[in-house]
Write a structure and sequence with these properties.
Elements (H helix, E strand, L loop, with lengths): L4 H9 L3 E4 L4 E6 L2 E9 L6 H10 L4 E5 L4 H9 L3 E5 L4 E7 L2 E6 L17 H12 L5 H8 L3 H13 L3 E4 L2 E4 L2 H11 L6 E6 L4 H14 L5 E4 H8 L8 E5 L11 E2 L7 E5 L23 H9 L6 H24 L1
Parallel strand pairs: 3-4, 4-5, 12-14
Antiparallel strand pairs: 1-2, 2-3, 5-6, 6-7, 8-9, 10-13, 10-14, 11-12
Length: about 350
């Protein structure tokens, strides 16, 4: 994530409300002071010349998140009118500049280092290809390219790499996974997360009701595509336990305080609102969706989010979800064969 959970908590503790606008931009609010900033992260230590290079590439106001920064770098960032956060996994400090108002950030010491995202470009197209093959077989590369949103040469490269790992195979009917449980295991090991920007909220209603309320707010705000994932979606597909947290994806974020939600930390949150970078979180063209106000995310996204759900019985709920997704795929495969 561009803004880590530790950084989110530090901002909330400082009285700063974070509203994701898209996968790269946030609106920060502190009292009467507001600012729309593009979030830029760097896993490497920067120097003042790096800041000058960034300034030449970005016209937006920037919120720069780095693991460390010298006083010279911080001074250069502030001279550009930008904001900065230093997030070393245990402690978050920073200075926001909102409408000319400096707002210092200084978090409490965390108990353990936060897990950082793996560097490098994420192959979203390949991951979407796996999602589509997990749903059903496809007769050829042209059809796969269309449903995965990538070029046919890229599909050919990705299929070759996946076949080398034993995940997919060419059959007389087309391309298919070799074993859906192997795909589930590979996905949970390999998926880096949806990227983008997330925010955490607390509400008093049951999580299913909270999910419906958030969907209503997003719909009325014209937030684009919306999808429910995690605990709530898993309960709709394979009921087993009472959901603990609603995970909602949207193309544009909103301020949920207007709907009665309170900004919260990761541990106590009952709603996680994510504006993702991954274009594959939305359901594919043949995916089953719940009716009414409960549009569901891609099944592999629901599976990944369900493994992050709070509660001691999340593992058993995830196993039941896997069985339901396995049975769903068998039905889809059987209907195609018929």
């Amino acid at each position: 994530m561009l803004i880590s959970t530790a950084a989110w908590r530090a901002l909330i503790d400082a009285g700063v409300l974070v509203v994701p606008l898209d996968a790269d931009h946030v609106e920060l609010r502190c009292g009467a002071h507001r600012g729309v900033l593009k979030v830029v992260t760097s896993p490497a230590v920067l120097n003042p010349s790096d800041i000058a290079a960034l300034k030449s590439r970005h016209r937006d106001k920037i919120l720069l998140a780095v693991p460390s920064a010298t006083s010279a770098v911080r001074t250069t960032i502030e001279a550009a009118g930008w904001s900065w956060l230093i997030d070393n996994g245990r402690h978050v400090t920073g200075l926001l500049q909102l409408a000319g108002q400096p707002i210092p950030i200084d978090s409490r010491e965390a108990a353990a280092p936060a897990q950082r995202a793996r560097p490098g470009r994420v192959p979203w197209g390949t991951l979407t290809l796996v999602r589509r093959l997990a749903g059903q077989p496809w007769p050829g590369q042209q059809q796969l390219a269309a449903v995965a949103g990538v070029s046919q040469p890229r599909v050919s490269q990705a299929l070759a790499a996946l076949a080398e790992q034993g995940l997919v195979q060419r059959t007389p009917a087309g391309w298919d996974v070799t074993n859906i449980d192997s795909v589930f295991d590979w996905w949970l090991r390999s998926y880096p997360g949806p990227g983008g920007i997330r925010s955490f909220w607390y509400g008093l209603e049951p999580p299913v009701k909270q999910a419906e309320a958030v969907v209503d707010v997003l719909t009325s705000s014209d937030a684009g595509r919306i999808a429910i994932s995690g605990d709530v979606a898993a309960d709709l597909i394979a009921p087993w336990r009472s959901p603990r947290r609603a995970v909602i994806y949207a193309q544009t974020g909103v301020d949920l305080a207007s709907a009665g939600f309170t900004p919260a930390g990761d541990e106590e949150a009952t709603v996680e609102l994510i504006v993702p970078k991954d274009p594959g979180v939305w359901p594919g063209p043949t995916a089953e969706e719940a009716l009414g106000r409960r549009p569901l995310a891609d099944p592999l996204q629901i599976l990944w989010d369900a493994t992050r759900a709070p509660g001691p019985d999340a593992d058993e709920a995830t196993q039941r979800l896997r069985k339901a997704l396995r049975d769903r795929r068998q039905r889809a495969t059987g209907s195609q064969a018929a």
